[in-house]
Structure formats: structure tokens, C-alpha cells
């Protein structure tokens, strides 16, 4: 878990995670196909954002593959590795249309000067309609709603590319509002959330987190209590343990899975919790220390809020294709719950506008049978074990499951 002011550092040694070896090391070339449907093997990764240096700071939850050869080519002969839009639509039974005119807001820190041009390349590769400032589909603002953008940052730029690409992949007809906070502090990121809602966004994705502390209830009321708005937050990338703001009772906490093609069954895909019983890299989960338990959560292992609610692909070994050129080399494969949070925000957008006054985090609990239940995998060791081990029904790493269409994300 990345903690505010007391970051958890990755070990220099490899972390054995779900049969996969994760290691922070310089990039080495590998065949592009290695990123797709990865089997248990050496998978080298790097966290995009530096650990917080001060109390109240956040870190993004994006992880990039360093063992996949990056490139900038386009076209059928140079298709990027990693899952693309058609894969996500197939895996999660999503419609090919829908969400027209809906705005999904992306909340991140710092500036990505290449955000719009990189987005154009991603969408062109996959035959998606253009999403630009000129046609009204894409809009980038600072946390005050203007164009006084913060200083660029390579790590957060990669996070931004991941976020806008996942909205594009999941809901190609949605508009995208990118709100850039001037720093990674909770106060600045929270101000960006409020700005997005003020600008009319009904779906707000947050792919960052930090350690819980006693100020969280005040931040909940100040930044995340927005009835009628679906706010998603990634659960974290360091295995069992809880981050804020995923622990807020007003948000949909999004865990992570390993996603693979599967010949068995009608779905054609299989999923397990991202992580390992040994701990280390994996989706965050557990019991909040400060967040009150929402009325719709009925698990009895946490007196307070349980994390997470739902999930989507996050394992970088079975990761998604992303295009990023700000101090980067183009196509790469990314993972982390920074991938799953914007996917789920976009599924909410496909499902339709939340009812006024509702907390949309409650919707999946009323429609749990409309989700893909994830019953295998774990992200650590804990008691009670459902908080770190997948099982039938609700569990910590994957929540109630992953999207099977949009029915679970509407009233």
C-alpha cells in the first residue's frame, strides 16, 4: 500500500505474484506478443509515479511493463500488444454503442502536454471516432477550470494516457474531461474532483491513492459526497491493504483482476484476483480504519467500509495497450488498478445517468447476479480470508465481480 507521507517501497528483489515474477529493472526487449495472455513467466514492471514525499500526498496506481518493446508504428502490421477495445468489449459483454454525449472526467495530477495528440493516435489505431478539442469530445482544464496547466510530469503523463485510453476503449462515444490538479496532494486532487462535477461530469475516475488517516472523513464530505455522480477510485497496487480515497463510503472502490482468453464456457474469458497469497504487487483490499460502512455492504468481516466493490483487469501481465509519448516511446502495456478505475467509470456511463440523489456505488450490490463473479486468486494473507482471497460472492480483491454488460451499474 502506498501511504501518505510514509510510502511503501518496492523491494529490489523479485516479488512472486500469482506465478509471475515482478521486478523493477531497466527495460529489456521482448516480443510484442508476450504482453498478451501472458502465461506464468518473468514479467518486469515499473510503477509510473514516485512515492509521496509529504503527508497528504497521493501516488498514481499505474504500472508499466518494461519487458515489452515500445514502438510508435500504426496499422495492422504493427498493432500494439496488450488488450484493446474489442478485447474489453468481449470480456465484459459491453455494447458497441452507447454513452453518446456522456462525459467521463479523469482526475490526475500534473500536466500531460501530449494528452490530446496521444489520444488521437490510440483512437486511430483502433478505428474509434476522433475525440478532439475541436469537435467538442475532449477537454483539458486545470483544477480551476482554466488553461493554467501545472508542470508536466512523465509519470503522471503515463497515468493520464492510460486513463483516457481506457475511457476510449470502453465507451468510444463518451466525451472526456481531463482535469489536471496542480499537485498530487489530496486537497488539489479533491479540488479537481469538485471542478469536474461543477462542469457537469456524472462519471469521475480517480486512479490514485495514499494511506488512510483521521482526516479522511472530512475529505469525504468535502470532495467525494456528490449524489447522482458515479465516482470510481482504484483500490491500490500493493496487494492486501487499504488506500484512501478508495475507502470513502461515497465512491465505487475498484479492485483488479488477471484477465485471460479461455476456451471453456460461453464467455470465452477467465479472471482471477490480481496478486498472490505471498503479498506484494496486486489489487488493494481490506477494512477501512475511518470510512463508515455503507448501508448496502453486508459482509460481516469489517465493522467499517470494506474495499473493494467491483473490479476489472489490472494485472500488467495481462495488461492493456496504451499510447504515451511524453518522455516515453509510444505503445506499451500497462496495468494497475489505474486501468480498472476508468474502465468501471466508463461502464457506468454506458449504463446511463445515475438517479439524482443516489450514491451509484450502491448499484452493483442490488444487481450482483449481473456481474462476472471472480472466485479464484488472492492478494495476500489475512483474517477473515475473504478480504484477501477470492471466493463465490463478495470478496476484497475483486468485490462483487467484473462487468457482464451494464445492468449492474444502473439503478
Automatic annotation (TrEMBL):
<dbReference type="InterPro" id="IPR030400">
    <property type="entry name" value="Sedolisin_dom"/>
</dbReference>
<dbReference type="InterPro" id="IPR036852">
    <property type="entry name" value="Peptidase_S8/S53_dom_sf"/>
</dbReference>
<feature type="domain" description="Peptidase S53">
    <location>
        <begin position="82"/>
        <end position="411"/>
    </location>
</feature>
<dbReference type="InterPro" id="IPR050819">
    <property type="entry name" value="Tripeptidyl-peptidase_I"/>
</dbReference>
<protein>
    <submittedName>
        <fullName>Peptidase S8</fullName>
    </submittedName>
</protein>
Amino acid at each position: 500500500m502506498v501511504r501518505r507521507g510514509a510510502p511503501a517501497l518496492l523491494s529490489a528483489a523479485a516479488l512472486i505474484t500469482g506465478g509471475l515474477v515482478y521486478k523493477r529493472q531497466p527495460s529489456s526487449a521482448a516480443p510484442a506478443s508476450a504482453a498478451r495472455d501472458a502465461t506464468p513467466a518473468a514479467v518486469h514492471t515499473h510503477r509510473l509515479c514516485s512515492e509521496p514525499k509529504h503527508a497528504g500526498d497521493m501516488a498514481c496506481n499505474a504500472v508499466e511493463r518494461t519487458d515489452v518493446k515500445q514502438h510508435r508504428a500504426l496499422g495492422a502490421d504493427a498493432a500494439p500488444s496488450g488488450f484493446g477495445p474489442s478485447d474489453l468489449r468481449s470480456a465484459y459483454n459491453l455494447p458497441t454503442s452507447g454513452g453518446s454525449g456522456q462525459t467521463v472526467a479523469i482526475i490526475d495530477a500534473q500536466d500531460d502536454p501530449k494528452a490530446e495528440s496521444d489520444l488521437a493516435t490510440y483512437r486511430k489505431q483502433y478505428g474509434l471516432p476522433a475525440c478532439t478539442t475541436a469537435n467538442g469530445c475532449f477537454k483539458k482544464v486545470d483544477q480551476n477550470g482554466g488553461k493554467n496547466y501545472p508542470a508536466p510530469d512523465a509519470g503522471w503523463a503515463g497515468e493520464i494516457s492510460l486513463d483516457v485510453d481506457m475511457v476510449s476503449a470502453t465507451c468510444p462515444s463518451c466525451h472526456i474531461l481531463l482535469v489536471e490538479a496542480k499537485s498530487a496532494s489530496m486537497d488539489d486532487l479533491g479540488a479537481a474532483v469538485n471542478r469536474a462535477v461543477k462542469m457537469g461530469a456524472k462519471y469521475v475516475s480517480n486512479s490514485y491513492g495514499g494511506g488512510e488517516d483521521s482526516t479522511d472523513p472530512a475529505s469525504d464530505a468535502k470532495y467525494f459526497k456528490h449524489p447522482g455522480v458515479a465516482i470510481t477510485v482504484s483500490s491500490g497496487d500493493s496487494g492486501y491493504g487499504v488506500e484512501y480515497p478508495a475507502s470513502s463510503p461515497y465512491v465505487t472502490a475498484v479492485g483488479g483482476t488477471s484477465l485471460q482468453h479461455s476456451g471453456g464456457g460461453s464467455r470465452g474469458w477467465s479472471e482471477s484476483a490480481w496478486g498472490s497469497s505471498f503479498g506484494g504487487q496486486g489489487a488493494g483490499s481490506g477494512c477501512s480504519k475511518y470510512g463508515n460502512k455503507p448501508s448496502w455492504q453486508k459482509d460481516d468481516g469489517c465493522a467499517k467500509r470494506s474495499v473493494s466493490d467491483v473490479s476489472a483487469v489490472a494485472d500488467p501481465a495481462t495488461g492493456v495497450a496504451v499510447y504515451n509519448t511524453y518522455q516515453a516511446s509510444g505503445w506499451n502495456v500497462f496495468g494497475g488498478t489505474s486501468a480498472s478505475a476508468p474502465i468501471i467509470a466508463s461502464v457506468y456511463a454506458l449504463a446511463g445517468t445515475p438517479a439524482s440523489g443516489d450514491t451509484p456505488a450502491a448499484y452493483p450490490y442490488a444487481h450482483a447476479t449481473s456481474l462476472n463473479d471472480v472466485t479464484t486468486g488472492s492478494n495476500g494473507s489475512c483474517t477473515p480470508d475473504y478480504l484477501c482471497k477470492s471466493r463465490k460472492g463478495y470478496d476484497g480483491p475483486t468485490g462483487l465481480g467484473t462487468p457482464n454488460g451494464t445492468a449492474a451499474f444502473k439503478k
